[in-house]
Amino acid sequence: MSILARLKSLLSFRKTSDSRDLFAVVLLLEKPLLVTEEELKSAVVRAWGRELREDAKEYVVLQSGNDGRQVGFIRYAK
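RE: above sequence
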């Protein structure tokens, strides 16, 4: 069972007619988890079940600072 599925079951999310399947998950880790932009994009594709759509201007951006910290941004078009 995936982490997201487990969270949904624990929190008993129920679908309603106007509910959306958009979730944000933030993990506070003891040590930074360094990923590449390609790994982040691959995770997005697996989560959404489809490729990013360039025509909808969907994209993934990952930037690393000099201190090794990373910031990732995922653009999703509904």
